[in-house]
């Protein structure tokens, strides 16, 4: 069984006079199990999956349709609860956290970017970006909104509504909305699935810049090209973690994914 650790939680290493501390863990799943349905219709979406995601890294989660990719992301993000096991997020054990506590955590500590941008058509880009802060009961400053939009190259589109933006620009607005709260972990589910290759490359570049600045990203994708931009790719099949590739090329990832479908 491959290790699910993206970076290892090990004892500090004594390098002469320098002690290297273990890496910080942004999110972790320990023997996570999730089943949908009951009896003869039961489907085990996660089967005792364990993994750790080191802060400041980009993890891609891959696997055939129905392998448990989205369930893994949803459980790590606190959107769904595991039936058994433990979930840690942003330094907290959220396994049995109250719904109200999970809501506050999602609003303050984590961000979401999905294939469907989920922008509100009647609001401007700036107003869409400000929504997470408003939902958290905060009064967003114009400076914070401007910085978020400028970070995705859309500082000059603050007053535009989604219908006045291209698909790639809308996805970048969604990314700005996801990072405006300065989340500890960004969860992305097929974030470039609806984009053409040129727009997707822009988004990949932005995500890589975020990781370079210390952002942690957990991304579900079926696209080997997308996964090749990540630091590591984990592979699921039938709800189980079956392999991991670090720094792999798109062709190597595609070959591994094909082998899981056979």
Q: In terms of topology, how is this protein built?
A:
Layout: E1 5-6, E2 13-15, E3 18-20, E4 25-36, E5 43-54, E6 58-62, H1 69-76, E7 84-89, E8 92-93, H2 99-108, E9 110-114, H3 125-135, H4 142-151, H5 167-179, E10 185-189, H6 197-212, E11 216-220, H7 224-228, E12 232-237, E13 240-246, H8 250-261
Parallel strand pairs: 1-5, 6-11, 6-12, 9-10, 10-11
Antiparallel strand pairs: 2-3, 4-5, 4-7, 7-8, 12-13
Protein model, in words:
With 262 residues, the chain is of the alpha/beta class. It has a domain at 55-78 and 96-109 and 183-261: Rossmann fold. It is built from eight helices and 13 strands. It has helices at residues 69-76, 99-108, 125-135, 142-151, 167-179, 197-212, 224-228, 250-261, and strands at residues 5-6, 13-15, 18-20, 25-36, 43-54, 58-62, 84-89, 92-93, 110-114, 185-189, 216-220, 232-237, 240-246. It has a six-stranded mixed sheet, with helices on both faces. A hairpin with a 2-residue loop joins β12 and β13 (240-246). The longest helix is centred in the C-terminal third of the chain and has 16 residues, at 197-212. The model is unreliable at 6-11 (pLDDT under 50).
Summarize the structure in short.
Helices cover 32% and strands 28% of the residues. It has 262 residues and is an alpha/beta fold. The chain has a domain at 55-78 and 96-109 and 183-261: P-loop containing nucleotide triphosphate hydrolases (Rossmann fold), CATH 3.40.50.
Low-confidence region ranges: 6-11
Specify the biggest β-sheet. 6 strands, mixed
Q: So how many helices?
A: 8
Write the CATH homologous superfamily of the domain at 55-78 and 96-109 and 183-261. P-loop containing nucleotide triphosphate hydrolases
Total beta strands:
13
CATH topology value of the domain at 55-78 and 96-109 and 183-261 = Rossmann fold
Biggest sheet, spatial arrangement of strands = 9-10-11-6-12-13
CATH A-level architecture of the domain at 55-78 and 96-109 and 183-261 = 3-Layer(aba) Sandwich
The CATH class of the domain at 55-78 and 96-109 and 183-261 turns out to be: Alpha Beta
- The coarse silhouette is globular
Mean pLDDT: 89
Estimated structural class: alpha/beta
Q: In sequence order, what are the helices and strands, one letter per element? A: EEEEEEHEEHEHHHEHEHEEH
Radius of gyration over C-alpha positions, nearest whole angstrom: 19 Å
């Amino acid at each position: 069984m491959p290790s699910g650790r993206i970076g290892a939680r090990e004892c500090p290493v004594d390098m002469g006079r320098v002690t290297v501390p273990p890496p910080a863990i942004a999110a972790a799943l320990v023997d996570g199990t999730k089943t949908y349905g009951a009896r003869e219709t039961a489907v085990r979406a996660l089967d005792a999956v364990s993994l750790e995601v080191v802060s400041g890294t980009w993890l891609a989660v891959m696997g055939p349709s129905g392998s448990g990719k989205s369930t893994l992301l949803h459980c790590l993000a606190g959107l769904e609860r595991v039936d058994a096991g433990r979930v840690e997020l942003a330094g907290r054990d959220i396994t049995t956290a109250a719904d109200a506590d999970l809501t506050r955590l999602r609003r303050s500590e984590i961000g979401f970017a999905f294939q469907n941008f989920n922008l509100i058509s009647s609001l401007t880009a700036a107003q869409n970006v400000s929504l997470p802060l408003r939902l958290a009961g905060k009064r967003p400053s114009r400076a914070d909104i401007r910085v978020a939009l400028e970070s995705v190259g859309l500082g000059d589109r603050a007053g535009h509504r989604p219908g006045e933006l291209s698909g790639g620009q809308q996805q970048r607005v969604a990314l700005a909305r996801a990072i405006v709260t300065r989340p500890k972990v960004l969860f992305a589910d097929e974030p470039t699935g609806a984009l053409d290759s040129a727009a997707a490359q822009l988004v990949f570049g932005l995500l890589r810049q975020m990781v370079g600045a210390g952002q942690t990203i957990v991304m579900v994708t079926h696209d080997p090209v997308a996964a090749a931009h990540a630091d590591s790719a984990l592979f699921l099949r039938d709800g189980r973690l079956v392999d991991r590739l670090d720094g792999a090329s798109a062709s190597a990832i595609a070959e591994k994914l094909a082998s899981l479908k056979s």
